[in-house]
Design a protein that fits this description.
34% of the residues lie in helices and 25% in strands. With 306 residues, the protein is α/β, with parallel strands linked by helices.
Amino acid sequence: MTKDTLIIGSRSSKLALTQTRLIKDAIEAVFPELKVAIKTIKTTGYKILDVPLSKIGDKGLFTKEIEEALLANEVDLAVHSMKDLPTKLPEGLVIGAVTNRENSCDILVYSEGYTLETLPQGAKVGTSSLRRRAQILNKRSDLEILDLRGNLDTRVRKLEQGQFDAIILAYAGVKRLGLEVKMSIISVSDMLPQAGQGALGIEIRENDPDVSRIVDVLNDAKSRLCVEAERALLAVLEGGCQVPIGMSARIEDEMILISGGVFSLDGKNAVRDEIDGDKKDASGLGEELAKNLLDKGAGEILEEIR
C-alpha cells in the first residue's frame, strides 16, 4: 500500500458524521500508519428543508455533491447510508464495501406509550417517507400522516414540542446516535424497510486499488449480498427512496429470503411477494422478485404515482 493519507467525504449532519467516524475509527484500527481526515460536504437534501422530499426528487439528493468531490479527487472515499444511495452510481464510482448491517426495521417514536396498532384514531404521525406513509395507511387509514423533515434531533424535538403524536424513524440511526427516546419496534412484516436500510456503504473511485484494498477490510459479505438483492429489486422497479416500495432480505445458512411490496400512496392498494434461493444468486433473485411484483400489478400502482 502506497497511500499514507485518506480523506473521507461526509454530509455534515450529526448522524452522517457519527457514521463516518465509525468508519474512520475502523480504518485506523487496521491501518494505524494512515492519517485519516473527514471533509464535510453539504448536499441538496440538507439545503432544501422546507419542501417535502417527494416534491424535489430523490436521485442523488443526499449524495450528488459528495460524489462530485470523489470524482474530482477532493476526497478518497465517501460514507453513505445505503438507503440514500441511488441504484445507479455515476460512471467511475463503485461501492467498495458494505458494512455489517444494523437492524433494518423502522420504529415508532412517541411521547406516550403507543404501538402502530394502539395509536388513537386520528393521531398525527410524522414522516418524510412516502414508503412509510403508504404502509401506515395500509394498516391504519384513520391516522393523519404529516410531513416531517430535518435531521434526527430536529424530528425528535418536534415530537417533544407536541407537533405530532408519534414519528417514524429508522432504528439504525437512532441507535448509532445513542438517542434516548421512547419507542416501539415496527416489525418488518408490518413495515418493509427501504433498500439497504441499516447498512453503511463505502463509495470509492473504480480505478483506485489502494483505497479499494483499505476499505475491503470493512466489507461484510452477508450484509452486502442482502443489500445487493434489495437494490437489484429496486432497480428493476425503477424506484427510489421517495417511491412507496419496501423490501427486506435476510440470509439463513446458504439461502437468501427476500420480501418486497409496492403500495399506493393512500395505502389502499398493495402488492406483496417473496422469494428464496441460493445466496449466490442474490441479485438475480432480487430482479426476479421485482418482475413477479410487476406481474401481480405493481406496475399499475407505480404508474399512477409517477
